[in-house]
Amino acid sequence: MEKAYFDYAATTPTHPEVVTAMLPYFEEKFGNPSSIHGFGRETKAAIQDARLKVADLLGADQAEIVFTGSGTESDNFALEGVAFSREKEGRHIISTPIEHHAILETLKFLEKRGFKVTYLPVDQYGMVNPEDIKKYVNDETILVSVMHANNEIGTIEPLAEISKVIRELNINRENRIYLHTDAVQTVGQIPVNVNELGVDLLSLSAHKFYGPKGVGALYIRKGTKLVSFMHGGEQERGRRASTENVPGIVGLGKACEIAKKELPVWTTELTRLRDKLKNGLFAKISDIELNGHPTLRLPKNLDVSIQYVEGESMLLSLDMEGIAVSTGSACSSGSLEPSHVMLAIGKTHEQAHGSIRFSLGRLTTEKEIDYVLEVFPPIVERLRKMSPLYKGVK
Amino acid sequence: MPQYSEKVMEHFRNPHNVGEIENPDGVGHVGNPVCGDIMEMYIKVKDNVIVDAKFKTFGCGAAIATSSMMTDLVKGKTIEEALQISNRAVVEALDGLPAIKLHCSVLAEDALKGAINDYLKKTTGKGLPNWKPHED
Question: Which of A26, A51, A270, B18 has the fewest CB within 10 Å, making it most exposed?
Answer without folding.
Answer: A26
